[in-house]
């Protein structure tokens, strides 16, 4: 059952190509709930089979994520919070999710548009409080693209592992994950912590 579903997703992504990835990830990044886990891993699988380029797939996913985030940003700017709270339920945008996202943005500031792209639920809603606060558009796009690029890269890499190793994926994924954690994820996380601390200090110095 799961194999048939995954194969259907792979066939769909292959038929839609890179423009399809842009479109689907734009939808995922807007208020409509389309999990990116259904888009990028099949693209990584196709890359492992030589039917797609992994870097182009990641670029397409990142572009789509930014476009979808800009839609949410624009809704927050031009439509406003009261309307989103009143009618958001019709697109599965609950007030509870919106409250959590706004609290996250207030707590972490503008860099939350980067951090939030790596977190479930918050990922596709963080653009709304950014729009409400009139965050500078260039910084918003930059932070969003960076976070979305990392997320798309992770999902594409997982799909590539499945395509490369097939049924042996459970046997080989452990060493791959360990290698990735030690050489990339942990140093990257440490760097992000440093950047975040410096960012917060800079924000506080501007406020005083």
What does this structure look like?
Helices cover 77% and strands 0% of the residues. The chain is mostly helical. The protein is globular, with a radius of gyration of 18 Å. Helix 1 packs across helix 2 (40-48), helix 2 packs antiparallel against helix 3 (54-78) and helix 3 (54-78) runs antiparallel to helix 8 (137-165). The chain has nine helices and no strands. Mean pLDDT is 77; it is low at 169-174. It has one domain (2-170).
Brief rundown of the structure:
The protein has helices at residues 2-29, 40-48, 54-78, 81-87, 95-108, 112-115, 127-132, 137-165, 169-207.
List the defining traits of the structure above.
208 residues, mainly alpha
Q: Could you name the ranges where pLDDT drops below 50 across 5 or more consecutive residues?
A: 169-174
Separate helix tally = 9
| Estimated share of beta-strand residues | under 5%
Classify the oligomer: single chain
**Strands, total number:** 0
Based on CA atoms alone, the radius of gyration comes out at 18 Å
Global shape:
globular
Taking the alpha carbons of the first and last residues, their distance comes to 59 Å
> What is the number of domains?
1
Q: What is the typical, i.e. mean, pLDDT?
A: 77
């Amino acid at each position: 059952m799961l194999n048939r579903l995954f194969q259907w997703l792979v066939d769909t992504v292959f038929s839609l190509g890179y423009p399809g990835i842009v479109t689907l990830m734009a939808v995922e990044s807007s208020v409509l709930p389309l999990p990116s886990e259904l888009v990028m891993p099949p693209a990584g699988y196709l890359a492992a089979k030589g039917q797609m380029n992994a870097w182009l797939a990641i670029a397409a996913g990142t572009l789509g994520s930014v476009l979808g985030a800009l839609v949410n940003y624009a809704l927050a700017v031009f439509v406003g919070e009261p309307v989103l709270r009143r009618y958001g339920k019709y697109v599965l945008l609950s007030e509870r999710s919106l409250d959590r996202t706004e609290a996250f943005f207030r707590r972490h500031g503008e860099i939350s548009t980067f951090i939030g792209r790596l977190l479930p639920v918050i990922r596709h809603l963080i653009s709304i409080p950014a729009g409400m606060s009139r965050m500078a558009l260039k910084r918003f796009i930059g932070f969003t693209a960076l976070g979305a690029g990392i997320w798309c890269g992770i999902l594409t890499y997982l799909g590539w592992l499945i395509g490369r190793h097939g049924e042996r994926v459970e046997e080989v994924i452990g060493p791959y994950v360990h290698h990735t954690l030690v050489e990339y994820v942990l140093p990257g996380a440490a760097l992000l912590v440093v950047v975040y601390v410096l960012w917060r200090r800079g924000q506080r110095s501007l406020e005083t």
